């Protein structure tokens, strides 16, 4: 039941509106004459995201709850876009907004079937609890590159990278051009296929390091065949996602 409700709310999250704003713009929002919320959406201004989030105020989680007011919501969204873009705000895609929130805090729509841990939150590997079903444990490594040259069709680059997926690693490709810095980034997630399910997490990570490093270099070589890039994971998370890395 909870998973079904999650799917329903995510559907409307994807129709919501998200903006990157500066602290100065947040302080000036009261002067922009933005439409007041109604019972179909709410208006949040938590820096660095301003959000017109479509969600129920009171009432059942049913699509019919939204239908009477959704035309007005769409009209208000157009007003938001015009005013916030003119004031210097920048639209953020709903999936990126969810990612930003998840990195800084936690996934706003977490699965009830799994839990996740960010490396930035872990001081000691031993604090990660062992799953009841060890084969359900998954790891995901994220690397970001700043694009420093002109490039052609990003979908061709995406296809070349996805084609590197093999029996050891699954690769996911993301391209972000909607950034505060107006720079373009490639974000790649690498998910290893774990075979020694019952080993401690620290051992799994240590055993993965040599092959993961080699695989990462293959990805980087393929990228450099098409564009000029610079590895920029910390800079991207710091400046675009507002997540600070821990240096100890």
H and E order: HEHEEHEHEHEEHEH
Fraction of residues in β-strands: 15-25%
> What is the distance, rounded to the nearest whole angstrom, between the alpha carbons of the first and last residues?
42 Å
Looking at the structure, the CATH topology of the largest domain is: Alpha-Beta Plaits
Commentary on this structure:
The chain is 35% helix and 17% strand. The protein is α+β, with helices and mostly antiparallel strands and 248 residues long. It folds into 2 domains: 2-96, no CATH class; 124-239, Alpha-Beta Plaits, CATH 3.30.70. It has a 4-stranded antiparallel β-sheet. A 4-stranded antiparallel β-sheet has the order 6-7-5-8, with helices on both faces. It starts with a helix and ends in a 9-residue tail after the last helix.
Chain-wise SSE layout:
Layout (H helix, E strand, L loop, with lengths): L1 H12 L3 E4 L2 H6 L12 E4 L4 E6 L15 H17 L3 E3 L1 H11 L36 E7 L6 H9 L6 E8 L8 E8 L8 H24 L4 E3 L1 H7 L9
């Amino acid at each position: 039941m909870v998973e079904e409700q999650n799917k329903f709310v995510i559907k409307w999250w994807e129709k919501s509106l998200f903006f990157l704003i500066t602290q100065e713009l947040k302080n000036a929002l009261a002067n922009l004459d933005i439409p007041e919320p109604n019972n179909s959406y709410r208006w949040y201004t938590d820096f660095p995201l301003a959000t017109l989030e479509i969600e129920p105020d009171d009432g059942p989680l049913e699509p019919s709850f939204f239908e009477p007011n959704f035309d007005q919501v769409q009209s208000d969204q157009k007003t938001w876009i015009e005013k916030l873009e003119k004031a210097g705000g920048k639209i953020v895609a709903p999936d990126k907004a969810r990612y930003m929130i998840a990195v800084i805090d936690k996934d706003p729509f977490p699965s009830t079937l799994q839990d996740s841990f960010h490396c930035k939150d872990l001081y000691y590997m031993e604090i990660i609890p062992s799953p009841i079903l060890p084969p359900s444990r998954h790891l995901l490594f994220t690397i970001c590159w700043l694009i420093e040259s002109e490039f052609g069709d990003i979908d061709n680059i995406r296809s070349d990278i996805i084609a590197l997926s093999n029996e050891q690693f699954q690769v996911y490709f993301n391209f972000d051009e909607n950034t505060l810095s107006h720079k373009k980034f490639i974000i790649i997630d690498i998910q290893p296929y774990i075979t020694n399910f019952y080993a401690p997490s620290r051992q799994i990570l240590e055993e993965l390091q040599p092959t993961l490093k080699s695989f990462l270099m293959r990805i980087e070589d393929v990228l450099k065949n098409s564009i000029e890039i610079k590895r920029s994971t910390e800079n991207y998370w710091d400046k675009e996602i507002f997540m600070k890395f821990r240096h100890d």
